[in-house]
UniProtKB/TrEMBL annotation:
It comes from Marinobacter nauticus (strain ATCC 700491 / DSM 11845 / VT8) (Marinobacter aquaeolei). SMART domains: EAL, GGDEF, PAS, REC. The modification 4-aspartylphosphate is found at D66. Residues 322-455 form the GGDEF domain. Residues 17-131 form the Response regulatory domain. Its EC number is 3.1.4.52. InterPro entries: Biofilm_reg_signaling, CheY-like_superfamily, EAL_dom, EAL_sf, GGDEF_dom, Nucleotide_cyclase, PAS, PAS-like_dom_sf. This is cyclic-guanylate-specific phosphodiesterase. PROSITE patterns: EAL, GGDEF, PAS, RESPONSE_REGULATORY. The keyword Nucleus does not apply. GO terms for biological process: cellular response to nitric oxide; phosphorelay signal transduction system; regulation of DNA-templated transcription. Residues 150-202 form the PAS domain. Its cofactor is Mg(2+).
Length: 725
C-alpha cells in the first residue's frame, strides 16, 4: 500500500513531459519555449518522422501535433502514438479549420483542436486543462481498485465528474446526486435528495422520462439511454439538454445494507446513472439544420424548404380540391445598387426588402429567398385569382417607398409572376417554372408589375438557352452591327441626324432585328455590354462623318432603362464619348417617359448633368407613357419623338390625327424640337409639314442602313433625300 502511494505521489509530482511536432522551425521553437516557460518538459520534433522516432525512445504525457507535415502527417503520428503510448494525450495545433478535418482529428483520438495562429494563453489553458483531465482519469483509475475500502474517495471522484451522477430508488426518487448538479442546473444536492426525478424534467419530457425507467428489458448490458431537457433552478423556461444513461443496480455486486443502501432516502438504490450536458451539441445540430433549410442573410426559408412546403401544399390542395398560387419575385434595379454601393449595402437592402414583404403575408404563407435578388412566395388555400392579385398589389406597394441605406436613398421595384394551381401546372417544378416565365414577361413590359401565367407565354426553354449562349458569343465575336436611320428635315429634305439601331448578324439565322434579342439581353443583363458596343461603333462612324465635313450631323442613341437607372450612368456614358473624341454637342440620347417617372428626382439630376456637357435629351415614343407637362417643364428636354402609332393614324380627312396635332402644338409652345417616327406615305409627310413638324424619319426614306450606305448618302451633294418607295 505504501509503495502504491509512493508511486502515485511521484507520478503526480513530476513535471509533465510534452512532445511538440511541427515542420515549421520558427513556430516549433515558439511553441516549445512557451511550454517550457510554464515548467513543462518539452521535446521538439521537426516533422512527423522525428516525432515517431522520439515516441519509440521516450514516454510522453501529451503530444502537440501539426496535421500538415512532410513524410508523415499528423494523422499518421496520432496512429503511431495510439499504438506505442495509448496513455499519451494528443492536441492538434493546425491551420486546417474545415469541419471535416476537425471532425476527423477528434474521431482519431485528439483531445482538443487549436487553430493557428493560436493565442498563447488559450493554448496554455488548453494544455493544462487536458493534462488536468488526464490526471483525473489516472487518479480515477488508481483509486478504482480501492473503491470498496474508501467511500470518501468514491464521492470525491463522483463529484469531480464532468457529468451529473445520480441514483434513484424503486419509485424514482433521487437518493443520491453529485455536486455537478449545482454548476449545471443551479440546484444544491440536498434540495433534490428525496424529490422525484420528474421534479427537474421539463414538462414536455415528463411522460417520456418516466416511461423510460419502466421498460422491462433494461439491464446492465442494455442500459436505458435517452435525451431529455432538464429545468434550471428558478426558471421553468430555462432548460438544458442532457443525455442520460441509466443502469439497474445489481444487488449481487452491491449488497445494500445499513449505511450503504440508499443515501438520503434510506431506500435501496434501484438505478444508477449519469446525465451528460449536450446542450452545445444540440444547439449546433439545430443551427446546422437551420442552415440546411434557411437563408442566413434574410432568415427566410431557402429553396429546399420552399419546395418541401410547396409539395405538401399541392398534396393538400389536390385532396381538398382547392387552389394555391406560387409567385416568383425579382427585384428591379437591385443589381445597380449592389454594383454601385457594394455587397454590404446590397445585403442590407435585401434584409430591408424581406422585412417589408413579410408584413404583407397571411399566416400560413411561405416567403423564401430563391437566390440572389429572387424570392418565391407560396399562397396556399386561395379562392381564386383575386386573392393572389391583392397580395401582389400589396407587395408592389410595400416596395414603392425609398430605402434608406446609410446616407443613400435608393429605390427598388419588384416584378412578380404568378402561377395558380391547377390551371398553370399540377407539379411543383411546373408551377415554379411558369411563375418564373410570367415574371420575365413583366420585365419585358417595363418591370414593377405582376402577371398571371397563361399558355400563350410558353417558351421553348432550350431555344432560349441556345439564343442566350449565342448572344454571349456574339458580344465576344463582334457580331453586332449598327444600322442608321436618317432623321430628315421636313422643309429642306436634308439629313440632320442619324438614329443608331442595332442588328445581329447571326452566323446561322442571318440578320436579326432588336425585337428578336433585346428582351433576352435585358433578362440576362447583357444589355449593358451590348449598348457599349453600339455606342462605341456609332461614335466611330458618326465621328468620322462629322470630321469629313458634316459638322452639324447629330447622333441619336436609344438607352435601356437599366443603363439610365445606374448611379454611374452619366460618368460611364461621357467616358465612352470622350474615349472616341466625339463632340458632346452632336449627341442626343433617347429615353422613354416611363424611365423618367420611375425615379423623377434622380433622373432629373442625371439629365441636367448631361445637358450641362452639351448632350441633347429626347423623349422617345412620346404620347404612349405618362405625357406629363410637369416633367417636360422641369427637365432639360430638347426633342419630342412622336410615336409611330399616332403617325399611322394620320389619314386624309380623318380625325385620328388630333393626337399628333396636340403633341406638335405642345412642343411648339414649349419650344421643343419635334421628330415624327414611322412616316411612310406622302399624305403623312404633307400633313406633318403643315403642322410645322421639324423632322421626320421612317420607311418613306427607306429602312435603317449600314454605315457604308450612309457614307455614300452623305457624299451626295446637298444631302437631299429622294423617295425610295
Amino acid at each position: 500500500m505504501a509503495s502504491e502511494q509512493t508511486t502515485e505521489s511521484s507520478s503526480l509530482s513530476r513535471r509533465p513531459s510534452i512532445l511538440v511536432a511541427d515542420d515549421e522551425p520558427r513556430l516549433l521553437k515558439t511553441l516549445a519555449d512557451l511550454l517550457r516557460s510554464r515548467g513543462f518538459e518539452v521535446s521538439e520534433a521537426h516533422g512527423g518522422r522525428q516525432a515517431c522516432e522520439q515516441l519509440h525512445r521516450q514516454a510522453f504525457d501529451l503530444a502537440l501535433l501539426d496535421l500538415n507535415m512532410p513524410e508523415l502527417d499528423g494523422f499518421q503520428v496520432m496512429a503511431e502514438t495510439g499504438r506505442l503510448q495509448p496513455d499519451c494525450g494528443v492536441i492538434v495545433v493546425s491551420g486546417e479549420s474545415s469541419f471535416s478535418t476537425v471532425s476527423r482529428a477528434l474521431r482519431r483520438g485528439a483531445l482538443d483542436y487549436i487553430r493557428k495562429p493560436f493565442d498563447p494563453e488559450e493554448l496554455l489553458a488548453t494544455v493544462e486543462g487536458v493534462l488536468g483531465k488526464q490526471s483525473l482519469i489516472r487518479a480515477h483509475e488508481m483509486v478504482q481498485s480501492r473503491l470498496e475500502k474508501s467511500e470518501a474517495l468514491h464521492r470525491y471522484i463522483v463529484n469531480s465528474s464532468p457529468d451529473i451522477v445520480f441514483m434513484l430508488d424503486e419509485t424514482g426518487h433521487i437518493c443520491f446526486i453529485n455536486n455537478k448538479v449545482e454548476s449545471l442546473l443551479g440546484y444544491q444536492p440536498s434540495e433534490l435528495c428525496g424529490q422525484h426525478f420528474r421534479h427537474i424534467l421539463d414538462d414536455r419530457d415528463v411522460a417520456r422520462g418516466t416511461y423510460a425507467l419502466q421498460g422491462p428489458n433494461i439491464s446492465a448490458d442494455n442500459p436505458r439511454v435517452l435525451e431529455v431537457r432538464l429545468k434550471t433552478r428558478g426558471s421553468r423556461k430555462a432548460t438544458r439538454h442532457f443525455e442520460i444513461t441509466a443502469f439497474p443496480v445489481d444487488p449481487q455486486t452491491w449488497p445494500q445494507t445499513g449505511k450503504t443502501q440508499g443515501g438520503c432516502t434510506g431506500q435501496p438504490a434501484r438505478y444508477y446513472g449519469i446525465a451528460r450536458d449536450v446542450t452545445e451539441r444540440k444547439e449546433a445540430e439545430a443551427f446546422i439544420n437551420f442552415q440546411a433549410y434557411h437563408d442566413l442573410l434574410t432568415r427566410l426559408p431557402n429553396r429546399a424548404l420552399f419546395k418541401d412546403r410547396l409539395e405538401l401544399a399541392i398534396t393538400h390542395a389536390r385532396r381538398s380540391q382547392q387552389k394555391l398560387a406560387v409567385m416568383f419575385l425579382d427585384l428591379d434595379r437591385f443589381k445597380v445598387v449592389n454594383d454601385t454601393l457594394g455587397h454590404a449595402m446590397g445585403d442590407r437592402l435585401l434584409q430591408a426588402v424581406t422585412h417589408r414583404l413579410e408584413k404583407c403575408l397571411r399566416r400560413g404563407d411561405t416567403l423564401s429567398r430563391f437566390g440572389g435578388d429572387e424570392f418565391t412566395l407560396l399562397l396556399p388555400s386561395i379562392h381564386g385569382h383575386d386573392d393572389a392579385r391583392n397580395i401582389a398589389r400589396k407587395l408592389i406597394h410595400a416596395l414603392k417607398a425609398p430605402f434608406q441605406l446609410g446616407d443613400h436613398e435608393v429605390f427598388v421595384g419588384v416584378s412578380i409572376g404568378i402561377s395558380v394551381f391547377p390551371e398553370a401546372g399540377e407539379t411543383m417544378d411546373l408551377l415554379i417554372q411558369n411563375a418564373d416565365i410570367a415574371m420575365y414577361h413583366v420585365k419585358a413590359r417595363g418591370k414593377d408589375g405582376y402577371r398571371f401565367y397563361s399558355d400563350s407565354m410558353s417558351i421553348n426553354t432550350a431555344n432560349r438557352l441556345s439564343l442566350e449562349r449565342d448572344l454571349r458569343l456574339a458580344l465576344e465575336r463582334n457580331e453586332l452591327r449598327v444600322f442608321y436611320q436618317p432623321q430628315v428635315c421636313s422643309r429642306s429634305n436634308r439629313v440632320v441626324g442619324l438614329e443608331a439601331l442595332v442588328r445581329w448578324q447571326h452566323p446561322e439565322r442571318g440578320l436579326l432585328y432588336p425585337g428578336d434579342f433585346l428582351p433576352l439581353a435585358e433578362e440576362t443583363r447583357l444589355v449593358g455590354k451590348l449598348s457599349e458596343q453600339v455606342i462605341d461603333q456609332a461614335c466611330r462612324d458618326v465621328g468620322r462623318w462629322i470630321s469629313s465635313g458634316h459638322s452639324d450631323l447629330r447622333l441619336a442613341v436609344n438607352l435601356s432603362p437599366s443603363q439610365v437607372e445606374h448611379p454611374r450612368f452619366v460618368e460611364t456614358l461621357m467616358n465612352r464619348v470622350a474615349a472616341h473624341n466625339f463632340p458632346a454637342d452632336n449627341l442626343e440620347i433617347e429615353i422613354t417617359e416611363n424611365v423618367i417617372m420611375n425615379d423623377l428626382e434622380q433622373i432629373s439630376r442625371k439629365l441636367k448633368e448631361l445637358a450641362a456637357t452639351g448632350v441633347r435629351i429626347a423623349i422617345d415614343d412620346f404620347g404612349t407613357g405618362y405625357s406629363s407637362l410637369n416633367y417636360l417643364h422641369r427637365l432639360p428636354i430638347h426633342t419630342l419623338k412622336v410615336d409611330q402609332s399616332f403617325v399611322k393614324a394620320i389619314r386624309s380627312g380623318e380625325d385620328g390625327a388630333c393626337i399628333v396635332n396636340a403633341i406638335i402644338a405642345m412642343a411648339h409652345g414649349l419650344k421643343l424640337e419635334i421628330v415624327a417616327e414611322g412616316v411612310e406615305t406622302d399624305d403623312q409627310l404633307a400633313y406633318l409639314k403643315s403642322l410645322g413638324c421639324h423632322q421626320v424619319q421612317g420607311f418613306f426614306y427607306g429602312p435603317a442602313r449600314p454605315a457604308a450606305d450612309i457614307t455614300r448618302l452623305l457624299a451626295k451633294d446637298g444631302l437631299a433625300f429622294a423617295y425610295t418607295g
